[in-house]
Predict the 3D structure of the following.
Amino acid sequence: MIRHYALIVVLLLTGCAGLGQVERISDLSGEQLKQMRDIQLYDSDKGLNFRSHGRIKGLSCKGSGWSGYSREDSAMTQLKIKAVKVRANGILYPTCSHDASVDWGNNCWESWVCVGEAITVE
């Protein structure tokens, strides 16, 4: 009986990491891949004529104590994928942060999170 509970706890801790937050690059069309590479990052909105699509988040998550690593560039790629999915061509005020401890908010043992505002620059 104790083994069953232990197995359930292990599955919950490792199987749900970043659940529903990580986009697969392989799911993008060729056109979306091109759009992702063309996404521009902006540190200021001064002089920009843009329309906002709202805040977006990219996550790179180490799902268990034994799985690979989380990486900042992977979180930034996720942010760009999210921008493409909302039909944006830029990201305003992109920032990334690293959480080397257990990130309970994202269900990760370690994570990189990048956030920004998805925008269409005209």
User: Anything to note?
Assistant: The two ends are 62 Å apart (CA to CA). Confidence is low (pLDDT under 50) at residues 3-20. Helices lie at 2-15, 30-38, 72-85.
